[in-house]
Amino acid sequence: MFGKKKGRRSAEIPSSSLADIAFLLLVFFLVVTTIDVDTGIGLVLPPPPDDTEPPPPIRERNLLKILVNSQGLVLINERPTAITDVRQRVADFVDNANRANDENLSVSPQTAIVSIKTDRQTPYDIYINMLDEVRGAYAELRDAASMAQFGMNYERYRNSVPSTSDDQIRQQYPMNVSLAEPDPGTQ
Amino acid sequence: MSKFKKKNATTKQEVPTTAMPDIVFMLLIFFMVTTVLREVTLQVRVELTRAENIEKIEQKRLVSYIYIGPRIMGNNLFGETRVQIDDALIEDLGFIRRIMYDKLLEQPRLIVSLRVDRDSEMGMISDVQQELREAGTLQINYSTRRLQ
Q: Range of A174's domain?
């Protein structure tokens, strides 16, 4: 007698296909997503040249001049050098205070500056290889210092310090790489 | 009236699927958040060089790309070396200054990543670098792949 009213529509939205819709969207985003991080060699360009203020004087011995010429030859302080020797040369130059103590090389790693110059016709890949070797030299020095002082490699040490200003190894071996002003009008 | 009654399984054989949409939605939201849909169509060829001592750029939002390489003409033909920013080829290198300065105002910690074809010459790159210096975007990155 008091049966439920017939013909009343159910108020629910059919949700059985919800999973299908979600899957479809999921597959779309799975396909579209690219989670590749950009990797590369970071560098800080010098600020634009200021005519009113001359650049600060740098002692000759604190400067290592690397020139990659139009033939792709690497010249360190005007002397041709094989690209495989660049790493050793840079390491000797930067860490001079703890090594040979040559009076033609840098006073300390903090004052050492590696200056890089290229010609207009210099092949880009040789330039990158050379930059890679310079960074390799710094990486080796930092690794060695980190091993000696903290007993871990530099990457682990760097991840253990809260910020880069607390990074003692980085302060010990700051990477002072500067790009030299390109020659005007050497097309 | 068969003697052999069907055996009823005592345990349920179904995996509960009520939570499946929730799981799927969670994955979906993850991928929606991580997806970067905006990709530029390259008009220049960029085959990156490889290097050993490279670093990752974690904050992708800070990065702005400049592509340098020979222009793609189709049929495996390549034109002269050109510079591309976002979707446009740069006609005059002097425009780079304005473009990058505007980007720097939007993102003060901008990192400019140079994606340069391996067969390029340094002349074009140092021209671009001069423009970047004038624009004030001093943080740059030479994009390279890891050496195998």
A: 60-179
